[in-house]
Amino acid sequence: MIILVGSKIDQANIQDSLGKPEYSYFFLMRDFVPVLERLGHVHIVESTGQIEALCECYRAAGEEVVFFSFSPPHQVPLGLSCPTVVVFAWEFDSLPSIVWDDNPQNDWRYTFANLQGVVCTSREAARLVESNMPADFPVIALPAPVWDRYGAGRTPQRLPLHLGGRQFPFAGVVIDSPTLGLSADGLVRKPSEIVQSGPRAQPAASGRFAETWQLSKALLRGWWREVRLPLAPAIDSEPPAAAQEPATEQAASALPAQSIAVSGVVYTTVLNPADSRKNWIDVVTAFCWAFKHSDDATLIVKMTHHDLEFYRIVLITLLSRLAPFRCRVIVLHGFLEDAQYRELIEVSTYYVNASSGEGLCLPLMEFLSSGKPAIAPVHTAMADYVTADIAFLLKTALEPFCWPHDPTGVFATHRHRLNWQSLLEAFKASYRIARGDPERYLEMSRHAAQGMQAFASIDVVAKPLAGFVGDLMQRNEAPRSQWPNLIQQDASVMS
Q: Most buried by CB count within 10 Å: which residue of 166, 264, 277, 390?
């Protein structure tokens, strides 16, 4: 069997696509390829024309061909000559079921009716598809099989707990709270501090202090001017070109790698700051409040966004309003190669997810597979694998929300609103376990690795996927049903 796979984002443009819509589907496709390779020969495609050309070529050679599209349903190419399956992640309690912009695919029922099968990354999403389609519609819920890349080869009986000094490499922009001289007083400058004429003289700086000063100037460039507060003149001058931060992920990743030293209890989160569901500001505020007087707690925030300017001002202002605090906040901007990402996992004590909804959350699954317990809620896709045995659970409550790609912004679904106090308490409780009860931590670590092996290993995912694809290919030989007409007649049209 020939299995064609495709995503809107590919290896060539992933660095400059971080944070853009659908960028995570590249990583989802990458994780599914090993299990698909057990079913047939996998060929990554880049265009509809390439799909059709390969389909014709392989069929002429007597091969069966199927196309797996890793994309939101409204972006799946329809009408292909080979059976098409969409693999998608969804984190809301209703499916888009109306048409807008004269595109019938925005009603996902129409899209599904013109496909041969659907793979959802969560049971909740699969149940939604089942409830919106005829009873015999082929749909299956499968997680990305990440355990083999991150958990295989470890010893689940005794995973280590390291709280001493350790290091990890990173090539990119590093925003490290202790080096910034943060103070809320800097948000509003006093009249006596404003120089009426001429540039202010800067203190002589050398060595490590000089590096810190230049970095701080680069990060704070334009800060006072941009927040538009009274009595807030622009910073005295632009930093030298060498000190200005790269704006894009690709430019940041071109910087030489540096070794970042951490110690104590290290919390890590990987998120897109443009995604309101991730609640990154709540993560930072709860962490700084929980560990305001603790110098052995560190929060590492790996931002998956192509443009540092998108969040720089918000971040620096937020940290200044929270200051003074003795804990440490490190923000990483730049693409993490696989080896660097694995070392980041190794130095971490916990993974943090405080989102209002997840279609899967690959980073959380990857850290759990590596034996790192988590702070996380139990809802949407996370309800399939997050338990009290492996995580400190967060409280949430339903609130109205809109489908993220709906231009009308109509409240047609729900998300799970975070209880901030429960996040604060989870930080404190997890810290107490890591510091005072290492056996409990190691037990959670073992449960995390073993649980992910049973949930998201290639062996576990391959068998049901093989059965699903086999049934799908047999169905494709049967006459097409009348689903497209039924769905189209039932759809509400919204201009």
A: 390
Distances (CA, A) of 101 to 98, 108, 169, 263, 495: 10, 14, 46, 52, 6
Stretch (H or E) spanning 124: helix 123-132
Phi-psi region of 433 (alpha: psi -120 to 50; beta: other; left: phi over 0): alpha
Contact present, 430 and 394 (Cβ < 8 Å)? no
pLDDT digits (tens, 9 = 90+) for 185-201: 655 544 454 444 333 34
Looking at residue 188, its pLDDT comes to 55
- Helices 312-322 and 207-220: angle between axes, nearest 10 degrees: 120
User: What pLDDT is recorded for position 290?
Assistant: 98
- Buried-state track 211-243, b at ≥16 Cβ within 10 A, e below 16: ebbbbbbbbbbebbebeeeeebeeeeeebeeeb
Please measure the distance between the N-terminal and C-terminal CA atoms of the chain and give it in whole angstroms: 42
> Rounded to 5 degrees, what are φ and ψ at 27?
-70, -35
- 468 Cβ contact list (under 8 Å, min separation 6): 117, 119, 138, 140
Tokens 């400059």 found at? 16
Strand partners of residue 392 = 375
Strands, E assignment, 22-138 = 41-44, 65-70, 84-88, 98-99, 117-120
> Distance (Å, rounded) from C-alpha 442 to C-alpha 157?
9
Query: To 10 degrees, what angle do helices 438-456 and 362-369 make?
Result: 120
* Ramachandran class of 104: left when φ > 0, alpha when ψ lies in -120 to 50, beta otherwise: alpha
Q: What are phi and psi of 155, to 5 degrees?
A: -105, 100
Q: Is the pLDDT of residue 229 over 90?
A: no
Q: In this predicted structure, what is the pLDDT of residue 206?
A: 43
Tokens found for residue 98: 């109306």
The CA angle 147-152-158, to the nearest 5 degrees, is 110
Tokens of 408: 């009308």
Q: Give the predicted TM-score (pTM) of the model.
A: 0.84
**DSSP notation for 391-454:** EEEEPEEEEEE--TT-TT----EEEEEE-HHHHHHHHHHHHHHHHH-HHHHHHHHHHHHHHHHH
Crossing angle between the packed helical segments 438-456 and 458-476, to the nearest 10 degrees = 20
For residue 413 the two structure tokens come to 């679904």
Give me 186's structure tokens: 């800097």
pLDDT tens for 358-417 read 999 999 999 999 999 999 999 999 999 999 999 999 999 999 999 988 998 999 999 999
Extract the runs of DSSP E, i.e. beta strands, from 73-116. Answer: 84-88, 98-99
CB 284 within 8 A of CB 327: no
Give residues with Cβ within 8 angstroms of 87, minimum separation 6. 28, 29, 32, 68, 69, 70, 119, 121
